[in-house]
Amino acid sequence: MVLSIDRWFGKVAIVTGASSGIGAATAEKLVGHGLQVVGIARRKDRLEALAKKLTGKKGKFHPMTGDVTKEQDILNVFDWTRKNLGPCQILINNAGIICNSAIIGGKTEDWLQTINVNVVALCTATREALKDMMDNNLEGHIININSIAGHYILPGPNLEIYTATKHCVTSLTESMRKEMGRLQKKIKFTSISPGVVATEILARAPSDLSIDISINLQAEDIADAIEYVLSTPPRVQIHELMIRPTGDQI
Ligand SMILES: NC(=O)c1ccc[n+]([C@@H]2O[C@H](COP(=O)([O-])OP(=O)(O)OC[C@H]3O[C@@H](n4cnc5c(N)ncnc54)[C@H](OP(=O)(O)O)[C@@H]3O)[C@@H](O)[C@H]2O)c1
């Protein structure tokens, strides 16, 4: 298998949650390879700082402030992208949050927010990206940033809702892969499932997590994995890629 990311040069990628962590590292990686990358997140200052940092690289970073729990914000990003750059050919569904509320004593609003960011927004962005890819007969690629929590039930209290949302991501990725096969579309679906990654999400995690987060990956490791799956030839679909830090006992 010959790996090359060159066929994506100049193509349009949309990255949700591009203001920090895995999303920011991925945007940086793709811009470095000459892609036009549209990044959506709520923190305007962080997106603009990233755009400034990436000025002069082979590709370009286009910051778009928005909240992925608001459908209209996602639609605006896709509309702007279609009009200004062309159809989306790569979607990185990365925006995600950890729920700080357990089932016992938890708050419904926290559960809903987590489900809306981790699942509903992913579905909305996927629907819009597929519209671009199918209307234009593109060989697209949709990459869902999942988690080991999408495959195993993590230990400890407080992670029930997060784990449930990531199991949804596993299920949705598999369903959509089959749907593309049924429709005979050359659109790849990939789930990337990291173990602990040292990003800001950990600071917002419940304080009584029974997980050793000192054994961790870096955001760049996941961006490298994304580069790898994008670099595979059109006939090869990496459907699931689980990445754990060495020494992990989860
Ligand atoms: N770090 C880990 O250990 C780990 C492990 C497995 C999987 N993951 C997954 O990796 C993905 C990225 O997380 P990360 O670790 O890189 O954490 P992070 O640094 O906290 O990044 C999360 C991103 O999601 C965005 N986001 C959150 N809510 C949003 C909303 N309502 N609207 C728009 N954007 C929103 C944040 O941007 P704003 O706050 O600016 O909106 C931020 O850019 C998540 O899906 C997470 O579940 C992480």
Give a verbal description of the structure.
There is one protein chain. The chain is α/β, with parallel strands linked by helices and 250 residues long. It has a single domain (6-243), classed as NAD(P)-binding Rossmann-like Domain (Rossmann fold, 3-Layer(aba) Sandwich), CATH 3.40.50.720. The protein is 40% helix and 15% strand. The chain is built from six helices and seven strands. It has helices at 21-32, 44-53, 71-84, 108-135, 160-182, 219-231, and strands spanning 12-16, 36-41, 60-65, 90-93, 141-145, 188-194, 240-243. A seven-stranded parallel beta sheet has the order 3-2-1-4-5-6-7, sandwiched between helices. Helix 1 links the parallel strand 1 (12-16) and strand 2 (36-41). Helix 3 (71-84) runs parallel beside helix 4 (108-135) and helix 4 (108-135) packs parallel to helix 5. The longest helix has 28 residues, at 108-135. The protein is globular and about 50 Å long. The two termini are 32 Å apart. The structure holds NADP nicotinamide-adenine-dinucleotide phosphate. NADP nicotinamide-adenine-dinucleotide phosphate (NAP) is lined by residues 17-23, 41-43, 46, 67-69, 94-97, 117, 145, 147, 194, 196-197, 199-202, 219.
